[in-house]
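Example (one chain per record):
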Amino acid sequence: MYPLSKLRRIALEQQGLLRAAPYGRGRAGTIKTIRQLGYVQIDTISVVERAHNHVLATRVPNFQPRHLDELQRRGEIFEYWYHAAAYLPMEHYRFALRRMQAIRNGEHHWFRNHDHKLMAKVLRRIKTEGPLRARDFEGNSNSQGWWDWKPAKLALERLFLLGDLMISAREGFQKKYDLTERVLPSNIITTPPSTEEFARHLIDNTLRSHGFATSKSITYNRKGSPLRAAVKRLLDEAQASTTLTSFELPNGEKVFAKPELLEQRAPSAPKNVKILSPFDNAVIQRDRTMAVFDFDYQIECYVPEAKRRFGYFSLPILYQDRLVGRMDCKAHRTEKRFEVKHLSLEDSFTASGRDEQFRIAFSDSLQDFAMFNQCPDVTIKNVSPVSWKRFLS
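Predicted structure:
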C-alpha cells in the first residue's frame, strides 16, 4: 500500500497540475498537453470560460483559444467522442473508428433512424461548396421545401458521428463541417483497431495521463463485455510479466501502475492554487476523485435546483495536492465582473486553521482566472465557513 499523499502527487504530476509549464507554452504546449492527457473535453456551457479552454489554460502558460483553432486547421487535432465530445490528437483517429462503426451498425439506438435522403443532400452541398456551418442551411429552401435548419443540423451531426464529415474549423463556437477525405491528413492510419488494440490504447492513455488506474477507470463510459474482458486480460498479463504492478486503494479497489513510477520519490507539490474546470480530466471520474482525493465532487448544473448543495457551476479548488473546496461562480462579461456566488471550503481543510499561504495563492489564482474570463473586477458574495470570508476577501 502506498500513501495517498504520494498517489495524489503522482496523479497530479501526470495531469500536468504540479509544475508551472509542464509541457511548454502557447500552441506547442497545447498540443503536447492534449497528447499527454489523451483528450480534452469540449463543453458548451459558458457560465465561465468553456471547459476545453479552461482545462488547457490551467496547464499551458500563455494559452489562447486560437491555439486550438490553429491546431485543428493544421491537422494536429480533431474533434470526436472520447467518453464525451473532445479534442483528440490526430494520430489517435483510428481509435475513433470503432464508435463510427458501432453507430453505422445501429448499436447506438438514438442514431438508428437516419434520414438518408437529407444526409445525401447535405453531403452533396458540402462537396460542391466546401466547408459549411449549420447556420449556412438555415432559411434555405428549394422547390421541394425540404430544407429546414433542425433536420439539416441533425443530418450534419449524424454524418459527423458516422465519420463521413469532420470538423475542419470553428468560427466562434460554430462548427464548420467538411468531407473527411479533405480534412484527414494522408498519413493517418484508417484501419479500425481490433478489440485488443483498442483496449491497449485505453490502458496506455489512462496510465500515461493518470499514473495509475483501475480497470473500471480505463473503460469509463464505454460499454461491451468483450472490451472489458480484453482490458482485464492485458492488465493481468502485464502484471504477470512485471510490466505493471498492482495494489489496493483504501476503498479496496485494485489499481495498476508501472513499478518504476511508484518507486520514484513523490513529486513536490508547491503551495499553489489551481481553479479547475468541472470537466477537468483530473476530476471527471467521480469514483476516482473520491478514492484518491477523498473529495466527493459532482457538477450540479445537471442536478435539479432544489437538490443542489454547492451551486449550478461549482469549480473544484486544488491546493498543493488536495482538493480543498468548490467555487460557484459566473463571469458577467458585459459588466467585466467576475462573481463568486459561493466559495465552500472542506471541513477537513478549514479545521487545520487559516493558512496565509493559501490566502495569497487563492487570491492570485482567482484574479488570474477572472482576467482569463475578461472580468478584472472580482466580487465574493458568500464563503463557507462564514468566518473565512473576511480572511479571503
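Caption: The longest strand covers residues 322-332.
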